[in-house]
Amino acid sequence: MHIDIQGQGPDLVLIHGWAMHAGIFAPLVRELGGRFRLHLVDLPGHGASPERDRPLDLADGARRIAAATPPAMWIGWSLGGLVALEAALTRPGQVQALGLIASSPRFVVGADWPHGVEHAVFTQFGAGLERDYHRTIERFLALEAHGSDHAQAELRALKAEVFARGEPALPVLRDGLDILDRSDYRARLAGLAMPSLWLAGRRDRLIPHAAMQWGAAHSPRGVYREFSAGHAPFIGHPREIAATIAHFHAEVSVA
After folding, report:
1. How far is residue 46's CA from residue 79's CA, in Å, rounded to a whole number?
2. Residue-wise over 171-210: b if at least 16 C-beta within 10 A, else e?
3. Which residue in 4, 80, 98, 99 could disulfide with 197, CB within 3.0 to 4.6 Å?
4. What are the pLDDT digits (tens) for 202-244?
5. Higher-confidence position of 153 and 171
6. Torsion of CA 219, 223, 229, 231, to 10 degrees
7. Other C-beta atoms within 10 Å of 90: how many?
8. Helix H segments across the chain?
9. How many whole angstroms separate alpha carbon 75 and alpha carbon 185?
C-alpha cells in the first residue's frame, strides 16, 4: 500500500473511505500537519496503491498498515473507520487511540439496529457499478455531501479528488460495498483497549449520528462529538475537526 508521510509531531494514521484516497483529507492535513506526523494511507486498489487485483479485506488492511506504521492514533473515515476499528481490536499495541469519522460499528439497518441505511442501498450501488461506473460513484458522493451546510462545495471537493490519483479498481469497489453491507462490530466494542473518539455529522445521510452516539456509549472510553455537517465533516469543518482531534490526543496522553 502507498502511505504518504507529512508533517511533524506525534504519529497519526489517516484512512480514507469507499472509492476515495488519502488526498480527500487535504483540508484536514493542512490543519494537522503542523502538530502531527501524518501517515496518509491509500487502501489497496485506491489512489497511488498499485494493487488493482488484490481483494479488499479489513483484516488484511489492518495488518499491513500496522506493519508499515509506528504505534499511533488511527483515524478512519467511513469505510476507513472499519479498517481502523479492526486494527484497534486485533492490534491494540499499534493503535494507541482510535478516531472514527462518520463511521459506525454497523452501516445497515437491522431488526435490532435502526441507525443505518437499508441493505438495498448497497445492492443498488453494486448493480450500478456494473452499468455505469462513474455515475454510480458520483451518486455516492452526492449522498456523502447531502445535509452539509456547504453541500455544493463539499460535492465539488469530493468530485475533484475521487479520480485525482487514477480510478479505483472495480473489484475493490465491489469488495468495499460488501464490507459496508455485512460488517457488524457492535458486540466487540466492549473489547476496545484504548480511548476512542467518535466524530459525527448531524445531517449525515449514511451514518446517523445516533449510531455514533451508540458506539461511543458502548466503548469503554468512548467520547462523542457532533458537528453541523454531512458525511464528510472534515471538508466543511476542518479546523473544528482538527482541534477536536488534537485536544482528544492531548487528553488521553498518547505518546
Report:
1. 13
2. ebbbbbbebbbebebbeebeebebbbbbbbbebbbbbbbe
3. 99
4. 989 889 999 999 999 999 999 999 999 989 999 889 999 999 9
5. 171
6. -30
7. 16
8. 26-32, 58-68, 79-90, 119-131, 133-145, 151-162, 170-182, 209-217, 233-236, 238-251
9. 16
3-class DSSP state of 163: coil
Cell of 248: 482528544
Q: Which of 42-46, 124-128, 147-151 has the highest mean pLDDT?
A: 42-46
Give, in order, the Cα–Cα distances in Å from 197 to each of 133, 146, 147, 153, 217.
Answer: 34, 23, 22, 26, 11
* 5 vs 21, more confident: 5
pLDDT tens-digit readout, 43-54 = 998 888 877 677
Does residue 39 sit in helix, strand or coil? strand
Residue 152 CA to residue 222 CA, distance in Å, equals 32
Output phi, psi for 140, to 5 deg.
Answer: -65, -40
Cβ atoms 6, 251 nearer than 8 A: no
Task: Indicate whether this model's pTM tops 0.85.
Answer: yes
Q: Is 29 helix (H, G, I), strand (E, B) or coil?
A: helix
Provide the CATH topology of domain 2-251. Answer: Rossmann fold (3.40.50)
| Residue listed under C-alpha cell 504505534 | 71
* 205 in Cβ contact with 87 (< 8 Å): no
Q: What is the pLDDT of residue 107?
A: 95
* 104: number of Cβ within 10 Å: 29
Active site residues: 78, 204, 231
